[in-house]
Amino acid sequence: MEYQRAEAIVLRRQPVTESSLIVTWFTREFGKLKTLAKGARRSKGPFVGKIDLFYEDEIVWLTSRRSDLHLLHDCFLVHPHPQLRVSVTAMTAAAYACELVELGTEVEDAHPRVYELLAALLGTLEEKVSGTVLVWFELQVLAALGWTPKWETGTVTGKLLASLAGATPAGARRVRLSAAQLRDARDALWLFSDAQLGRSPRSRKLLLETMP
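-> structure tokens emitted (212 positions)
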């Protein structure tokens, strides 16, 4: 057994005992990672104020030789993204992005590009929530994971998706879509995305309710 350290974003928290949590992280160095955070549910526990959804932390864990569930040893808060909790729309968009990353990646399979995309998106969502930027993010994550379709550029929707797929973050933020254009882009993208992931993210229903 040895200690490891990484930059990490909290994707999910699951209560496992009255005092502990299983935390699913996405790390820059190791990809998706699961740790047992003993005492994390105690009001005076060692991880109070350090582990919550969307938090960016630096974590230290003791690796397990028996399973992919490791023991969280220490945790240092880097960025809590407080503005995400001010808006239901922002929280829902962040939850959708995190679920997409969790569904699309395997445990301990490093994808530093995906980490960078997620960290940047969380910061962007604190400033402004945009359905177009979420479509751009999903396109970039799929490409980083090796899933890059050839969109039919003979159609308006295909041309739009191809353009967004090649856009910079700043370029994507400048794009303004009508409600109909956004709906058509989502429909085409999600048809492809769900086929690769094997199912639809559960948070999509709430996303559509808050960002129609």
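The CA atoms of residues 61 and 184 lie 44 Å apart.
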